[in-house]
Amino acid sequence: MLLIILQMCLKDITRAQMHGYPESLQPKVTLRKVECLVTLGRLQEAGQTIRDLESNFAAKPSLAAAQFQILQRNLCRLKMKVQERENLTASFPATLTKAFEDMDLREENEQIPGASSSVSLCMDPLKGRYLIATKDILPGELLVKEDAFVSVLNLGERPPLHHGVESKWDTQVTNGDLYCHRCLRHTLATVPCDGCSYAKYCSHECMQQAWDLYHNRECPLGGLLLTLGIFCHIALRSTLLARFEDASKVIRKLCVEMTNKDMCSPESENLAQTPSSDLGGESEKNGKTVKTPVPGCNLNGKYENNYNAVFHLMPHTENHSPEYKFLCALSVSALCRQLETADSSKPATAPPAWCSELSTWGVAMLKHMLQLQCNAQAVTTIQQPALSGSKENSVSNSRQVRLATGIFPVVSLLNHSCSPNTSVSFISTVATIRASEKIGKGQEILHCYGPHRSRMAVAERQQKLRSQYFFDCGCPACQKEKHQAAVGPRWEAFCCDRCGAPLQGGDILSCGSTSCTEPVSRDRLIPRLQDLRQQVGQARKLFGSGQLERAIQLLLGCRHDAESFLSAEHSMVGEMEDALAQAYAALGDWQKSATHLQKSLRVVEVQHGPSSVEMGHELFKLAQLFFNGFAIPEALNTIQRAEKVLMVHYGPCNDEIQELQKMKSCLLDLPPISLGPSV
């Protein structure tokens, strides 16, 4: 993170100097540049910048005596710093490069670039394409590292503007202001597009690359694209990127599809009419029959992250409702009309019009919109707002948020499971998939499409998968839970108010104990649960406004009420304990905060599992509490547990892992004492 910030600082300084930064302040900003270069280990550039500054001042001695003395002192200090760094054997970027070595695949797959050699691509008439393990895979092993073929930033919602005398400027910050619209990197100072009001980038280089690839067409369509939605935007950008691979080849493919009955099914039998050099199929070569390659692969059987792979993603045309297909077609028509208008307004000296083949590209966009419902991948990031109100003693309360939507052809090869054996994370536009558990040789590599067993009951998962992805899930988790439907998940269980045992049943619940024969209606308990949720929400508002004592009293009352009808492992109980941990952390009472967080942790473990990424984030929070409370043995033990879990899901380059390592290093340097009772 420091490396990124320093590089951004250097770019900001360069931009300032290019755009007329005051000459009187040039020495000051140049000294900052030298500081950045030294910290980055770019010592030769730092030395040259110092020499340039000295020669410029000698030629134009314009500083006052006091300013001159300050400049001289700073120059001497920086010269000594450069000399010290030159004596070191390793520079800052070298250590950082070493930390990033694990981000690369140990051995890349010859058939699937971007995938590990530990997996293989298979084809089945029922399952379609899928990946299996070619050897035993250990937890944490990197299986896929793929850059998005296309990605579009989710700008975030803004409240509607209210016009009038008392209206104020809208200063709300969204993702569109904090992340680069091309590479999705977090940026502190965006570079806006010169032609529109919404596209912003982390650098001039990113802005120029986006302009050359697609933004020159998107720029005049900003308002329309925002109105039509992100799927339409991705569909347009995909076709714009396709032009740079082999436009004539793509046109031929699309024309064949337009003449086929099933226009949007790439695996239709009608595609046998397509020349084998384009789409594959059986062909004669030296008197021998060449086997049809897997859809999306080239004739050599290679599946690459390119437009050919995107083109062969299934659109499920026959499964979409007529209303949805009509809306997609209407959106594409509006977009094509606007593109045609923009193209006709260009001067005669402009480059050849892309819109000469607009009807064909329109077909491509429609196909991509239909593909996206089943093949779009949410690009997520971890946001870490402070749990404590104190800046000095903040405790991270991370949450995963959707940053962008993209197409990842290799990731799309993975089939769904409600209890997957992989974990996906993102750095910029790159998706990394790691094994979250041991995967045996020949076992299928499985990914979760969203409905996870730890977040939804089996009936809800089945309904969501059927409505969005058009299949009935038969994964082991679904099969097991169907047989246990009367029991339900432990984190949603009500308990008997007499003996505390979990209640079972459908509309009428009972604990099964002979001493507690009176049944209870589910309809009587659900309003109590809803009222509890409302009170916890009110407590969080009190916490947000600084009324910590009132928030704690309300939460303690909620917890007492919950004990009479919710199981100790209910997700609502975990939420209350987590809220109490936040409140006590804000007061600086680390012992009480850790006690409540440990109770919340038990609920997370029951719901998500001891090796889940959710468990890793909670352990990270608990480690911070022990660290802040100087509970050294407990802190070191929790740090070790958090590292073990998070390493499986993210590898060593995760921000939380690096923070844990800093805490451990600090604790090991402290004397073995604790400044309070152990928690």
From TrEMBL:
One GO term of the biological process aspect: methylation
Domain MYND-type, first and last residues per copy: 180-219
Domain SET: 117-450
Range of residues in the leader sequence: 1-16
Catalytic reaction(s) noted: L-lysyl-[protein] + S-adenosyl-L-methionine = N(6)-methyl-L-lysyl-[protein] + S-adenosyl-L-homocysteine + H(+)
Biased composition (Polar residues): 267-277
Record-level GO cellular component terms: cytoplasm; nucleus
Transferase among keywords: yes
Functional description taken from the UniProt entry: Protein-lysine N-methyltransferase. Monomethylates PRMT5, modulating its transcriptional activity. May also act as a histone methyltransferase. Plays a critical role in cardiac development. Acts as a key epigenetic regulator of gene expression during cardiac development via its dual activities as a methyltransferase and negative regulator of HDAC1.
Molecular function as annotated in GO: histone deacetylase binding; methyltransferase activity; zinc ion binding
Species in which this protein is naturally found: Zalophus californianus
Tagged with keyword S-adenosyl-L-methionine: yes
Ranges for region Disordered: 265-291
Intracellular or extracellular location(s): Cytoplasm; Nucleus
Keywords in alphabetical order: Cytoplasm, Metal-binding, Methyltransferase, Nucleus, S-adenosyl-L-methionine, Signal, Transferase, Zinc, Zinc-finger
Protein name: Protein-lysine N-methyltransferase SMYD4
